[in-house]
Amino acid sequence: MSDASPRGLKPALYTGRLAGWLARKRVPLGFVATLMTIVLARPTWETWRAGLLVAIAGEAIRVWAAGHLEKSREVTRSGPYRWTAHPLYVGSSILALGVVIAAGSWPVTVLAAVYMGSTITAAVRTEEAFLRRTFGDTYDRYQQSQAEPMVRRFSLERALRNREYRAIAGLVIGFGLLALKVLLPI
């Protein structure tokens, strides 16, 4: 029996390439998923409000994480990074749950699960490989909860430098479109 994938690649290499592609394309794929969400959504004011509260909580986690992160310069160990290696993705997942609640649609639930499950998993894999290559033992100790804690205060400037304003704008636009969908049910 062959251990090759459909393209003749070994499974680990195929998974690595697929993960890399999904990680690189997660933003454009996110725009497609957003457009599909708007079309498939069936929000009410009740689901919209509940979803918005959950999404704001997810974005708050993202802002907190972005305000501590020094991307590609270090293994960040302050703020939410003390408890989880990927707080930006935790925040994104909670934000996506808020969108699902707001949309009030089973097809959106499935779409969000497929999109988030595939792209977040791929991003985590590729980022962990990068961090391990770049920071070696320091990253391994962090992953095993053996790294020294880092003392750093939240910085709004750092959050802005990490372009978290784009996620906030996406949240505002997305929920604005869902509100329009409530007002003009089409």
Secondary structure tally, helices: 8
The backbone outline, from C-alpha atoms, is globular
How many structural domains in the coordinates?
A: 1
Structural class: mainly alpha
The proportion of residues in beta strands is under 5%
Task: Report the biggest beta sheet as strand number plus sense, adding barrel if it closes.
Answer: none
Helix content: over 70%
Distance between the termini: 52 Å
Unreliable runs, pLDDT <50, ≥5 residues?
Answer: 1-14
Counting DSSP E segments of at least 2 residues, the number of strands comes to 0
Order of helices and strands: HHHHHHHH
Folded structure, characterized:
This protein is mainly alpha-helical. It has one domain. The chain has eight helices and no strands. Helix 2 (26-40) packs antiparallel against helix 5 (106-135) and helix 4 packs antiparallel against helix 5 (106-135). It is globular and about 55 Å long. 27% of the residues are buried.
Layout: helices, strands, pairs:
Layout: H1 11-24, H2 26-40, H3 45-66, H4 87-103, H5 106-135, H6 137-143, H7 156-161, H8 164-183
Helix pairs in contact: 1-5, 2-5, 3-4, 3-8, 4-5, 4-8
